[in-house]
Design a protein that fits this description.
The chain is an alpha/beta fold and 418 residues long. The protein folds into 2 domains: 7-249 and 381-415, Alkaline Phosphatase, subunit A (3-Layer(aba) Sandwich), CATH 3.40.720.10; 262-374, Gyrase A, domain 2, CATH 3.30.1360. Helices cover 33% and strands 19% of the residues. It is built from 17 helices and 19 strands. The strands form 6 sheets. It has a 7-stranded mixed β-sheet, with helices on both faces. Helix 9 (180-197) runs parallel beside helix 11 (219-237).
Length: 418
């Protein structure tokens, strides 16, 4: 194993890991799945980690979406530092809506890049390619450093990913985007690389396809967690310290008849203030509409055509299903968000409700046949924080001081374990 000095990033000093340090981000891994898995006896390795190591419920980044939370974990900081405050945002200067996955949008270095530059072997594997470029930003690739996705595992090159022939390496075909196998491929690739190359730092980020479709305790959810648990146990058996985290939780946001329980906010604002006076942006938006139909629990409103933000705020507060309506300044202060990427008004739904723009703008075909389960709001920010090893006295005391944040997982895993 390579050896180097301490690595400093965003106010945290990371000591050199004394064994492989693996963080698994269970996308959509609401704590209720762990509770259900323990009750049903399908996650014996995770139970062992909890009994012999450390566990607590932590708070993730709000909005509780994939991109901002993965970047919080990768940088050990919140969005006001790293800049990624959604999967999608509105650039008020250019008046363009932008997918928030470009590496140029990430304002911080990552733990992965800093350790790799210090001489560590670092591997970052994500299920969806949308995270890859930011996870791999400024990371020197090759010589054991890799960053690739299961989605495009058949396209990997040494220049772009630090590895090639990934399907041959893992010994599996390319998984389908809408499948449990996409996540399991990530874990199997991590196991294979841990066996053969013994990287110092690994990040394995899964997808929430199963959690969007199946509630805790359903057969498919139990099988998925059983399969995850088996692979997590294998990582520990290979000598790694393993940290388990989630990027966000998951809530049922459907009506009794199974249809989505939606506030069509742009339609309401158009009726109240006139068309083209406001712009609702749903920052959950990404290419995978079968997961959630771009419906989540957190949206932003820009006043683009004369609407008064205070009037919009007061109106939104009266809308049934809305839990919180905040000004830009309030939202940035409450959730550590970058002001230049924030809307004039932030709207957060109640747990059983989601928010969309106009009814005509959302493709809900992929949701047919199952209840809408999605995320984004404060009610989906709670995540499991589990470490396979016991904590040292310093970090035991730190954990007892108050609420843990998901972005602390590498700090606790590398610095805090015995």
């Amino acid at each position: 194993m390579a050896r180097g000095g301490n690595v400093e990033l965003n106010g945290v000093t990371y000591q050199w890991p004394n064994r492989p340090s693996v963080v698994v981000c269970i996308d959509g891994g609401d704590p209720t799945y762990i509770e259900s898995g323990l009750r049903d006896g399908v996650i014996p390795n995770i139970k062992r980690f909890m009994d012999e190591g450390f566990h607590k419920i932590a708070q993730g980044t709000v909005p509780s979406f994939t991109c901002p939370n993965n970047m919080s974990i990768a940088t050990g900081a919140e969005p006001n530092v790293h800049g990624i405050s959604g999967n999608y945002y509105y650039d008020a200067a250019t008046k363009e809506e932008v997918v928030m996955t470009g590496p140029e949008l990430l304002r911080s270095e990552t733990i992965f890049a800093e350790f790799a530059k210090a001489g560590a072997k670092v591997v970052a594997i994500t299920s969806k390619d949308k995270l890859r470029q930011q996870l791999g930003k400024n990371m020197p690739l090759g010589d054991g450093n890799m960053c690739f996705s299961a989605q495009f595992a058949d396209r990997c090159t040494l220049a772009e990913n630090g590895v090639e022939n990934v399907l041959e390496l893992v010994g599996q075909p390319l998984p389908d985007m809408y499948s449990a196998e996409l996540s399991l491929f990530v874990l199997d690739a991590g196991i294979k690389l841990l066996e053969e190359q013994k990287p110092d730092i690994l990040y394995l980020s899964l997808t929430d396809f199963i959690q969007h479709k199946y509630a805790p305790g359903e057969a498919a959810a139990n099988q998925f967690y059983r399969d995850i648990d088996d692979r997590i146990g294998r990582l520990a058996d290979l000598g790694a310290a393993v940290g388990l985290i989630a990027d966000h939780g998951m809530s049922d946001k459907s009506q009794d008849d199974g249809t989505p329980n939606v506030v069509w906010l742009q339609d309401l604002l158009d009726d109240e203030f006139g068309t083209d006076t406001t712009k609702v942006v749903c920052p959950i938006t990404d290419p995978f509409v079968a997961h959630h139909g771009a419906l989540g629990g957190f949206v932003r409103v820009w006043c683009v055509g004369g609407a008064d933000p205070a009037a919009v705020l007061n109106f939104v507060k009266t809308v049934a299903g809305v839990s919180m309506a905040l000004t830009k300044d309030e939202a940035c202060a409450e959730f550590d968000l970058p002001a230049d990427r924030e809307g004039d008004v932030v709207v957060i739904s109640e747990q059983g409700t989601c928010i969309g723009s106009t009814e005509a703008a959302h493709d809900l075909e992929g949701l047919k046949g199952h209840r809408l389960r999605t995320h984004g709001g404060v009610t989906e920010r709670q995540v499991p924080f589990i470490i396979s090893q016991p904590l040292n006295d310093t970090y035991k005391a730190e954990s007892a001081r108050g609420t843990l944040r998901s972005h602390q997982i590498y700090d606790f895993l590398i610095n805090g374990t015995i």
